[in-house]
Specification:
Strands 1-2 form a two-stranded antiparallel ribbon. Strand 1 and strand 2 form a beta hairpin. Helix content is 67%, strand content 2%. It folds into three domains: 230 residues, no CATH class; 72 residues, no CATH class; 52 residues. By secondary structure, the chain is mainly α. The chain has 14 helices and two strands.
Length: 391
């Protein structure tokens, strides 16, 4: 990704996309329908968002839209895991299986609370406790049934294994907001100019409906963020809520299709609506919209989203990572000669390209000057000839 960003800065978007293809191969398989990890979503978001940015700069809008739709799905999923404390599917399945064992064992109305971190311990203690024995002996003729039930439960519990470990995301609320803004702006640009290029009814409808749905989802997300900020400001966590209240929008001012919080911050939905009014609805050329939207400030925000989540204490340090695939001996920390040569060759190609560009520019300038001088000489000769004829 660093190489991709470096090459994109000099306008080599095709080469930058080739580097991003390597990044996608690295993150492939980190996210499946049955396994979600908030930390893995950080990596996937970075890869797909940067790829979409490069594709838009290369005017490949259909391909960019595919990456942006996936990135949008991931960022709203990250909101659920990071801000709403929703459980990933593998954790939810584990808890469901634990509760199913609990239901099979529970024969009385006595409450039996299960927490993910000690669910197995509690069920094992219940099976070995006097209370379990008393419940077993209380029903005559069912001793064998209860014994079999316990054995089955222990087998299922052992087969279930330890609770799945899930690494949390390293993104702050501000980074999530910036990610949402970047993804939504690029997606709206792609939808708008796909509809302009191919003005079918379905494409125009996709643009209008897409933005409307986007604003609705953003209003929900912003309500969650406001609630989280209110909870963080309460001393000692007093009045902490476990869910979003029904009247969550009471502290917001409606702005057409979006919601703007009554605070010093400007909501993301408000910025997206303003961008639609001032840019997309004005029928400006594609390059003009790109220049005004994806400017230096946008790129700075985007790079902050991409790389800041990786700067945490778990990120391996350069001094403790072998830079080649050899065994860990005294030469393991020596950089690979082939990789060094490859990087130097890329650098040389970039410098040669810049030098070639300068040479072509200078040659073109000299050619224009020579043409202007030639025209001037022809004009002077024509004037002299006309003067002689007059004389």
């Amino acid at each position: 990704m660093v190489l991709s960003v470096s090459t994109a800065k000099v306008g080599k978007y095709k080469q930058a996309l080739n580097f991003m293809e390597i990044s996608h191969n690295v993150v492939q398989g980190l996210h499946t329908p049955v396994y979600h990890s908030p930390r893995n979503i950080d990596y996937l978001l970075a890869a797909n968002t940067l790829t979409a940015y490069l594709l838009i700069k290369s005017s490949k809008l259909e391909e960019a839209l595919s990456c942006l739709e996936f990135a949008e799905k991931l960022i709203f999923l990250q909101v659920k895991y990071t801000l709403e404390d929703e459980k990933p599917p593998q954790v939810a399945k584990y808890l469901t299986d634990i509760r199913k064992i609990q239901e099979d064992l529970q024969e009385s109305n006595k409450p039996f609370v299960v927490e993910i971190h000690d669910a197995q311990t509690q069920i094992t203690r219940f099976l070995e406790s006097k209370e379990s024995q008393r419940l077993s002996d209380s029903k005559t003729g069912h001793d064998e049934y209860r014994r079999q039930l316990k054995e089955d439960a222990l087998v299922r519990l052992k087969k279930l294994g330890a609770p799945p470990k899930v690494k949390q995301s390293k993104m702050s609320m501000t980074l999530i907001q910036n990610y949402i803004l970047a993804i939504c702006l690029m997606k709206n640009i792609a939808l708008k100019f796909i509809a302009t290029k191919t003005p079918t009814v379905s494409n125009k409808r996709a643009f209008q409906v897409g933005i409307k749905k986007q604003i609705e989802e953003l209003s929900e997300v912003e309500a969650v963020m406001i609630l989280k900020k209110q909870q963080s400001l309460r001393p000692n966590g007093q009045g902490r809520s476990t869910g979003i209240p029904h009247s969550r929008t009471k502290n917001m001012v409606p702005i057409e299709q979006g919601m703007m919080p009554l605070s010093e911050e400007i909501s993301v939905s408000y910025l997206i609506i303003q961008h639609k009014k001032e840019m997309l609805d004005q029928n400006l050329p594609f390059r003009t919209v790109l220049a005004e939207t994806l400017d230096a400030e946008f790129v700075k925000m985007l790079y902050g989203c991409l790389f800041v989540p990786f700067l945490h204490e778990e990120t391996p340090q350069k001094c403790v990572i072998p830079l080649n695939r050899e065994s860990a001996d005294k030469y393991a920390f020596v950089p690979s000669e082939d990789e060094v040569k490859y990087m130097l060759s890329i650098r040389k190609k970039a410098l040669d390209a810049l030098e070639r560009k300068y040479e072509l520019t200078e040659r073109s300038r000299q050619s224009r000057l020579e043409q202007d001088l030639h025209k001037q000489k022809i004009l002077e000769k024509a004037i002299d000839r006309a003067n002689k004829e007059l004389d």
